[in-house]
Specification:
Mean pLDDT: 93
Radius of gyration: 19 Å
Number of strands: 10
Structural class: alpha/beta
Order of helices and strands: EHEHEHEHEHHEHEHEHEHHE
Helix content: 25-40%
Number of helices: 11
Shape: globular
Length: 302
């Protein structure tokens, strides 16, 4: 597995392993639960959290070639890839879901990508859904004038990324009974579960609705390790309507958590994870004496 010392990445000065911070919160302590935050948001100022762990091995594999990847209008993965390209001097191309987005002003997320030098290529949603089909991918590469590019899948989740995320589980060995992470494409959970000790389990909180992640995670573990690894489960009740969607209740929870603990809470992933753990604790899902570790995989966009 490539590390932060891989060729070309040492200049990024990542902080690994990331810190583990214990949080005192009466919603957990009153039920005999310890809450730890795995502060992957502190790995690097711009390549935060699971984005570092996923991108580092792919950046090494790209070996200086342009990087083409995929995402929606609010994709954290696109922003991280664009930042990596700027920092390392690599050309990046972002294939963005939604041809209609090309006709309007860029939102703050895509504006950040463009400011970091990412060339944005917008495609219609039907083509985007078929992007993994060889003929469609070839057509996208031609249309984006990027046939020589190294392709990273949506969310950065491939076998290399899963191996990169295995270190997250390894760093949490001996710290927690349950290690939890918010899930987009499932690569982080696939690696996290593989890295944990046999007496630990991983919990994934999907931020998209659809119920497809179980099969995707199993496929990623087969691709990365040849078969299933670790003990993991999903609870898909906390997506709040889908990716990049929130509710007034979630926003109020995130603001309250920030006020209590002095931690700015990223809304798309981290808020849903912490809200889920708080709710599950209230429901009695964890035995008294359980230690939970929540992976803080990003920070709010400035």
């Amino acid at each position: 597995m490539p590390s932060s010392d891989a060729p070309g990445l040492t200049t990024l000065r990542s902080q690994l392993p990331s810190p583990v911070q214990e949080i005192t919160d009466d919603r957990f302590t009153h039920r005999g639960i310890r809450l730890l935050l795995k502060r992957d948001d502190l790995i690097h100022p711009e390549l935060t959290g699971n984005k570092w762990r996923k991108l580092a091995p792919n950046l090494t594999a790209a070996a200086g070639r342009p990087i083409l990847t995929f995402g929606g209008a609010y994709s954290n993965h696109l922003r991280a890839t664009a930042a990596a390209g700027r920092l390392l001097g690599l050309p990046t191309i972002g294939v963005v879901r939604g041809q209609e987005l090309a006709d309007g002003p860029l939102n703050p997320s895509l504006s950040r990508c463009a400011a970091d030098g990412m060339r944005l290529h917008f495609t219609d949603r039907s083509t985007y859904r078929r992007k993994t089909e060889p003929e469609t991918l070839a057509a996208i590469l031609r249309a984006a004038d990027a046939e020589d590019a190294y392709v990273v899948p949506e969310g950065g989740s491939n076998a290399r990324a899963v191996h990169g995320c295995r270190s997250l589980g390894e760093e949490l060995r001996g710290h927690a009974d349950v290690a939890a992470v918010a899930c987009g494409t499932g690569g982080t959970l696939a690696g996290l579960a593989a890295g944990l000790a046999p007496d630990q389990r991983a919990l994934g909180i999907p931020v998209l609705k659809g119920g497809f992640l179980d099969a995707d995670i199993r496929a990623l573990q087969r691709e990365a390790f040849g078969g299933p690894r670790g003990t993991w489960s999903l609870d898909d009740r906390f997506h709040c309507g889908g990716y990049a969607r929130t509710t007034p209740e979630l926003d109020a929870f995130a603001d309250d958590f920030s006020d209590r603990h002095g931690l700015p809470v990223e809304r798309l992933y981290v808020a849903k994870l912490l809200y889920a753990l708080t709710t599950l604790t209230t429901e009695g899902a964890f035995r008294p004496g359980t230690t939970l570790a929540a992976a803080v995989t990003g920070r709010p966009l400035d």
